[in-house]
Amino acid sequence: xxxxxxxxxxxxxxxxxxxxxAVFPVATRLPTAALKPISxxxxxxxxxxxxxxxxxxxxxxxxxxxxxxxAGPAVLPENVLLKAxxxxxxxxxxxxxxxxxxxRGKEFSSIIQKAESDLRSLLEIPPEYAVLFxxxxxxxxxxxxxxxxxxxxxxxxxxxxxxxxDKAFKEAQKYCKAKVVWSGKAEKYTKIPSFGDVEQDPDAxxxxxxxxxxxxxxxFKNYPVPKNKSGLLVAxxxxxxxxxxxxxxxxxxxxxxxxxNVGPSGVxxxxxxxxxxxxxxxxxxxxxDYKIHADNASxxxxxxxxxxxxxxxxFEDLLEQGxxxxxxxxxxxxxxxxxxxxxxxxxxxxCPVEASVRSLMxxxxxLEKSELEAEFIKEAAKEKMVQLKGHRSVGGMRxxxxxxxxxxxxxxxxxxxxxFQARHA
Amino acid sequence: xxxxxxxxxxxxxxxxxxxxxAVFPVATRLPTAALKPISxxxxxxxxxxxxxxxxxxxxxxxxxxxxxxxAGPAVLPENVLLKAxxxxxxxxxxxxxxxxxxxRGKEFSSIIQKAESDLRSLLEIPPEYAVLFxxxxxxxxxxxxxxxxxxxxxxxxxxxxxxxxDKAFKEAQKYCKAKVVWSGKAEKYTKIPSFGDVEQDPDAxxxxxxxxxxxxxxxFKNYPVPKNKSGLLVAxxxxxxxxxxxxxxxxxxxxxxxxxNVGPSGVxxxxxxxxxxxxxxxxxxxxxDYKIHADNASxxxxxxxxxxxxxxxxFEDLLEQGxxxxxxxxxxxxxxxxxxxxxxxxxxxxCPVEASVRSLMxxxxxLEKSELEAEFIKEAAKEKMVQLKGHRSVGGMRxxxxxxxxxxxxxxxxxxxxxFQARHA
Lengths: 425, 425
Fold this sequence. Notes:
The first copy, chain A, is of the alpha/beta class. Chain A has helices spanning 78-86, 106-123, 137-149, 163-172, 290-295, 305-320, 324-343, 373-382, 407-424; strands at 9-13, 23-27, 41-43, 67-68, 129-134, 155-160, 177-183, 207-210, 212-213, 218-219, 233-236, 253-257, 268-273, 349-350, 362-367, 385-386, 397-400. A seven-stranded mixed sheet of chain A has the order 5-13-12-11-8-6-7. A three-stranded mixed sheet of chain A has the order 2-1-3, with no helix packed on it.
């Protein structure tokens, strides 16, 4: 890359492999004696090598991410997504994707074992509980729980605080004598009763609750003591799983679809006390039998491997954040900000849920001027805040603010809400 | 970065942001007149900027991929994996991952609809069939099929050609009067009978086959005509799904776990004639009821979204290859090469399966000198050929050579096999 030199410039001749073309003017001080002009040429003999490692793949710029308030599947932690992306083609030198691994090979074994171990740490799961990674969603567990725990004639109590508890009850009726001992339906699922007011059946095999109602935004802050002879409490924790600490020992069974707080859809986690396993009804499909899965460490058949891997990355991330106490603090902070914005709006925004049971995860609200709701959704979407429409059975708006929704996302939403109100007062 | 200069070297002073440290000796020719020595320092005033765009993520070098003969989950097409990797963080400008999408949003709707549409094209599925994307594996279908198609007292015929058909039979016994009308067990599952020899029950509700036995490597090349009054044939096609054309109209139900030929684990595809839907037994869990899923286009609850997306990428890839006729040609070519190597080995290698029913997908074989099998596995693994161990219930070796196993992989295996034989003759 030599070019004509002016007397006082030195041109760097670089090896042809290096693209940069650099011209370096030279500051010279020469004696002013009458000398012949000289020209000097620099010849680089050392090849320029960039010692830096190749840059990582350019992440989609942060500004390209939407602010995703979907109720599930839902936002996942960015660092988890980037990590999954970087190792999708070749997982940690194995020469294959997690999606291609034999579920019985050593690589995937390490993945599922670490996922279970991390989950046990997060929730402080006592050793007398089995942890199962299953397919079929919470909806399959609506059947699996009574099939595994009951005889067809066993009474079972359902405390129904929203539509998911109601669905669980309806499915259970096929397999046991399920009974609703309390329902919030008359008040449009905006409350949880004082537990003393709930008349439980002492002969019931278990009491079932939905710990967090995704559609109605109603969350148990503490749990009823089961008054049945087995002393069993069962909870669907799909939409607040791993959002806060839980005393697992209070429960006989906890189940959760992963696709709210802990992973993509297709994985359902079941935490079941081991002594409850092994008496499934004869009509139980093998894939719904806890014993089959517990005896085979969730590998009776091919588990949902990639989903389990993603859950494992999320569990690691939660532990790195300091565990569920820390996560709960963040969730309380985010939720408080949003509910305060609603409550301080002088009725422009309204959340119908009784204050003491408002969910940290799902925040339903309406506009006093309901005719503005479509515009609200549309304008929010223009600002890249999406999935704010309320569930089709309820209408209005709903912001789901799971673990992975950053505080900045909620701040953006409340700023928008205040501005929207100001423009439509 | 200035350092002491020798008279004839010029040191480049670069801005501190640029890491490369370059020293450029200078070739000089100075007049030999008695001049004072001069020293010249180059001061770079132009910052070195690399005008090249950031390099694309370095793909894992082709040589880093192992040759993966696993039976499922199994090898996936490289271009599919790379595409999935590139869009994992941000799918096509949506600002979110497929794993974060609401299953009812427009983005995922487009994904699942395209996947279904492409599958219908691939298999030429007639419009009177529903296509369902479910969770639960083929193992759940072992229960779902009789629950949906039969009353508990209905006789049903099972033609058992391997352990998967046997498992389907055992599960079905909970839900119908299942009967084995032929079993290959006595001959260690190495045959398929002449269909005329199989005595079917004219009152049977359906005849069930496993179209390709993954463990035993036995594949139906044509199908029995059902002799029952409903005229229904049902097939588990998990391990040869989309490996060759199929006349769907011959079947009442086809089901397949995706994790052999078409995707990761966690997705089960069910193709069911619509008129068979709607009479599920009362004890059927809602998640096993074809009507619920058909009425809701697989969105009754949250489907396994990422798995469906991956299947969609695979379907696109199969169509780009020219469809299932082309894919079948490749599979026949690969299988022929491997079986010929086995058959030409003068007994060093043996495949027990009767030649006319040898699977194009799963090739079980043993070594005459069985004491060499561990060494075979070990040496193959050194050559990056993995998962060649036979199923634990059978022993020996097994090479699964699904669609995504390239011909080069099979060529590599047979070269190794010939060399291994030469060294151990």
